[in-house]
Amino acid sequence: MKENLLSILLSAIVLFGAGLVYILPLRKREKWVRWLPVMFLLNLHCMWLNYELGEAWWVLGQLLHYLCAIFMVNRCTKLAWPGACYCAVWICVTGEMVHELWIVFSQYIPELHTQLWAQDLSLLIFSTVCYLLLFWTVARWMPRGDIYQIGPRQLFSAFLLGSMCVTMANYFLVPHERDDTLSVIFVLCQIYCVSLLYLQTELFKKSEMQKELDALNFLYSCEQEQYDMACQNIRMVNRKCEELEQTIGQMQQYLPDAVRQELKRPMDDAMRACDTMVESGNGVLDIVLTEKKLLAETSGIQINCVADGKLLDFMEVVDIYAVFSNALDNAIEAVRRLTDADQRLIDLLVYESQNFLVINISNPLMESVRFEENLPVTTKARNSFHGYGLRVLARAVEKYQGMFTVEAKGGFFTLKVLIPLPQKE
């Protein structure tokens, strides 16, 4: 009885350790550590039930292990249910594999079978070594950043391969029928299934990255078209403003002084609208700022700009437009949600500092910002291209060996871009 209880405890420790291997690299919930004792006791209870049910209820016992692993991942991490189910497959497969590898290796070390404490200690040491290797390799390589993005096909494939591994593990539950050569064959087959599981993980991850890259390429190619359209719109606005200015000037000649004084303010507002063209020293930046200022004014947003546009001359047209257009679009979208009209301000600075081009855009925040992979999470629908703006910006910045940071602090959201300036000849 004592040996059985010790065996149940060791099995629970091995499975719990497998859970920690895959949970620690992921994005965790607040106070997730408090769930660990509960998870261990739940693992221990599952192992005891599995022992009590016996071999006849082996499938039910494995299902209990799997459900326990899902609950453990869900309570400790911020993974969605598909990601938690996928991670649980790896936990169960890893726990079974480590235990079976130890069984195979221990067959060639007879000394371990002479003392019970030697078997238990060797299992703990072997499991610890295996888990440390997995923690620093596979468990860190598979997620994208600190999260799993799992689709139905990948989850179904993982269930299939995981079921095959666990089914072969049933052979090791019957020691008196075990053959050394057959044990090695079963372990090799399981290693093959696990290798396929890891391979399909990498293939699905690369496929997802390729889709994202294609979307970025498409959006980046659209920047040139958007810039051409913006140029046409600004030229049309300027032409209409010139016509309006001439018309107002002609009208003033025929108006009585009383009427002229009464219409002075609305006329001044109309004349001021003609003076929207920004002059920064760079034609592309002028187009972007003029376009975004007109867009911002429709929502009562003021853009304050201090920019040395000549610093941008080394950048290509589409890159300048991509950086400023996407950054200002995000700022306008955030400021538009502010209820206080006095806070609807966006500050833009473009200057040189220590041979670096510095672009600083800041705006007030209405609410806290959640970050994923060091980028703010979009508040718009995920079934469109929303949320890719900063990724397009990042691609343009990286093209010139630059970097950018985003920070939400003190009620302000700040985007800062640093790009090394070319050496002057």
The end-to-end span amounts to 84 Å
Number of helices: 13
Give the structural class: alpha+beta
Widest β-sheet, arrangement of strands: 1-2-3-7-6
Principal-axes shape call = elongated
Number of domains: 2
How many strand segments? Answer: 7
For the largest beta-sheet, the strand count, sense and barrel status come to: 5 strands, mixed
Radius of gyration, in Å, reads 32 Å
Low-confidence stretches: 381-386
> What portion of the residues fall into strands of 2 or more residues?
5-15%
Mean pLDDT value: 78
How much helix, percentage-wise, in residues? Answer: 55-70%
What keyword list fits this structure?
425 residues, alpha+beta, Heat Shock Protein 90, two-stranded antiparallel ribbon, 62% helix, elongated
Describe the protein's topology.
Layout: H1 2-23, H2 35-53, H3 58-76, H4 81-106, H5 116-136, H6 138-141, H7 152-169, H8 180-254, H9 257-262, H10 264-273, H11 283-297, E1 302-307, H12 317-336, E2 345-353, E3 356-364, E4 371-372, E5 375-376, H13 389-398, E6 403-409, E7 412-420
Parallel strand pairs: 1-2
Antiparallel strand pairs: 2-3, 3-7, 4-5, 6-7
Helix pairs in contact: 1-2, 1-4, 1-5, 2-3, 3-4, 4-5, 4-7, 4-8, 7-8, 8-10, 8-11, 8-12, 11-12, 12-13
